[in-house]
Structures are given as C-alpha cells and as structure tokens.
Design a protein that fits this description.
By secondary structure, the chain is mostly helical. Helix content is about 80%, strand content about 0%. Pfam families: PMEI.
C-alpha cells in the first residue's frame, strides 16, 4: 500500500511538471500571439491543473498506512512545490495584456 502511494504521487508530480512546462512554453511565446487572453487562459488552466495534481499527491497518503515522519517530510516537500505553483498562478492571473 505504501509503495503504491509513492508511485501514485510520482505520477501526479510528473503530470504537474508537464503542465507547468506547458504553461511556461505558452507564456514564453505570448508576444507572438494574436490572442494573448487565450494564451493566458491556457497558462491559468495548466497551472491550476498542476496544483490539483500536487494536492492529489498528498491526498493519496491520507488513507494509507504511512509513518508520520515520512508523511510529514513528503507533505512539507509537496506543500513547498504547491506554494511555488500557487505563486505562479497568482502572477499569471495578474498579467496585463
């Protein structure tokens, strides 16, 4: 059970990284886009999805038998990542076009 929690979490975090990369790629080309609002909307969606994946990773441990020390360390790492993603979403939400 514990190993599956970590496997699921790794899968979620890989998805999260992919979505953040998609967001960065879209925003890096915004100056060439005719529809900047569409680009920003996509970046918001991908970044929000990344946050959802990060939260799903944590949720996967809630009903599993994982030692408190391992859970705490994992939780702190994931929450740090989620804070960065949340800050990125905040910045994207406040872009002016």
């Amino acid at each position: 059970m514990r190993l599956q929690s970590f496997k699921d979490c790794i899968y979620d975090l890989k998805d999260s990284m992919s979505e953040i990369k998609d967001s960065i790629k879209a925003l890096s080309g915004i100056s060439k886009s005719y529809d900047k609002n569409f680009v920003i909307s996509n970046a918001q969606t991908w970044t929000s999805a990344a946050i959802t994946d990060e939260n799903s990773c944590l949720d996967g441990f809630s009903d599993r038998n994982v030692s408190p020390a391992i859970y705490k360390k994992t939780r702190n790492s994931i929450l740090s990542l989620a804070r960065v993603s949340s800050n990125a979403l905040y910045l994207i939400n406040h872009l002016s076009v």
